[in-house]
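hey can u check if this looks right to u? its 340 residues, i copy pasted from the old doc so theres a chance i mangled smth
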Amino acid sequence: MDKEYIGYTLAIVGIALIAIGALNVAGYLSFQTVDYTAPQILYSYPQDKMIYKATEIDEYVLYAQDQESPVQSATYADKYSGVVSLVVTPYTQLTHKLTVVQSDGTVCKYPDVNFDGKVDGTDQNLVLSAFNKNSTSPDWSLYEKYDLNNDGAVNIRDTAIVSLYLGTVTFSLKSTASYTLGENITFAFSASSVGGTSGIQGVFLIQDYQFLSGLWTINGQIVNASSAINLESYSAIVSFQCTDATVSSSQVTVIAGVNGKSYVLPLTGTNTWNKELTFSSGINSLILEASTSDKINKITVSVITPNQPTITLGHIIIIAGAVLTAAGVVVVKKEKETSW
């Protein structure tokens, strides 16, 4: 067979594959692939190794996200409740909410705009239906609910918030357990999707407490309850400085809970604790707690990191097409040089 013909054939097939892959990446073609990635648990209540008053544990809450496959179910278990199934609950009905706050401190609406407990394509389309509407529009009252960052307009900032939480499902169950003061409760959360199951296991302590004064910082920036921090990388220095003169450093324990995992912050200076923590791609719920036997300072902070690029089947096809095209060009070029 003529090598030049083979070269042209490779190049044509390569170009065709590039086109098919590009259509897939753009969303015009859909390839059915198996998703083996377990859902990510963004936030749980209760949280591992944290301290609560008995009256605070009135609800079990789990936020799970899987942008590839829908999260289908979630469960909670402890020695009082056993294994119980959590139900999909609209964000507006939850007592303990995953904070939706921008880096400048702006409080945003959670993008479950149709209040069905899921952030999905329906919510995306509803926000897009109001795109470019603003407070001067005559029908603004109909679309103001889609202004997620409350800046008086529905624009790319609002669609970005939807994209950030896309695939998030909120589960909850009201607690009927009667916890006892001073006891440790072991617990387990799990969430399942088509791709797999992810879980959190841990322990929380029931205790009465007073407020422990102190200052929390992330990379030197002061944070408070409901703050949000945008990071350019996947790690940050988390610090606590105790300003309560009635306690000594040896009495204080400082813990940071990130996506179901707990880390003890070591004492690194006078009444100062810090540790470098690593975060997942996207949204991270960071629960910070400093405590003594009878005092506590506990806040929740949202940490947002860059989304890692996703390699899809379409991208792989584009790469394969590029390789075939390049190979075909090389074959044709060499054959023409030989024929000269």
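The mean pLDDT is 88.
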